[in-house]
Amino acid sequence: MTGLIQALLGVVVLTTGRKLFWLFVGAVGFVVGIAVAQRFFGDQSELVLLGIALVMGILGTLLAVFLQRLAVGLAGFVAGGYALMVLIKALDLRFGTDGLWFLVGGFIGAVLVVALFDWALIILSSLGGAGMVVGAAIDAFDLSNLWSLFLLVILFIIGITVQLGFKRREPPKQNTPPTSAAPKPA
Questions:
Q1: How confident is the model at residue 185 (pLDDT cuts 50, 70, 90)?
Q2: What is the CA radius of gyration of the chain?
Q3: Count of CB atoms within 10 A of residue 145's CB?
Q4: I need a labelling partner for 182 at 20 to 30 A (CA). Which of 86, 88, 100, 171 fits?
């Protein structure tokens, strides 16, 4: 059941992560919650694991609503780390420690979010959403490394394309301050 929820959240984040950044942050919290719950409470029922993941997802969402920049930076860190771990798993690369590579991916993700906020949200939510879907697919269907990588790249491209389509439909931001009244003639 957690795999199905992870895949569905992945699709939503993949396509709307920039627009619904709070959902992106909450979904990242949920996926991290699943990983933490499975690692430390793996002998518990799936309902307990799901509860832990939901609590972490809700905390992520609340963080996103009240501390937007910090939450998105943290989500960028976690999504970048998670995406790099999925990529390493898909490519079957085993060198160094997973923690080190998670930190590297996390650092890259956080820097992207801070420097290029809109673009970073599009890229990271597309990559994170694709990673969620591929991670669930690997668990459910035991995909080969090549198919996992292929699916990750295709979903990533689809996510960016869909989110850019939404971005183009938005009215342009105006940088000129609004005028409150017309100037009086001299």
A1: low
A2: 19
A3: 13
A4: 171
pLDDT digits (tens, 9 = 90+) for 44-98: 888 888 898 889 889 888 877 788 777 778 878 888 888 888 788 777 777 667 7
> Token pair 């292929």 is at which residue?
150
Q: What is the pTM of this model?
A: 0.64
Neighbour-count burial for 29-58, b at 16+ CB within 10 Å, e otherwise: bbbbbbeebeeeeeeeeeeebbebbbebbe
Distance CA 57, CA 64 (A): 10
How many Å from the N-terminal Cα to the C-terminal Cα in the chain?
73
Give me the helices (H) in the chain, please: 2-16, 21-41, 46-66, 68-90, 98-115, 117-141, 145-169
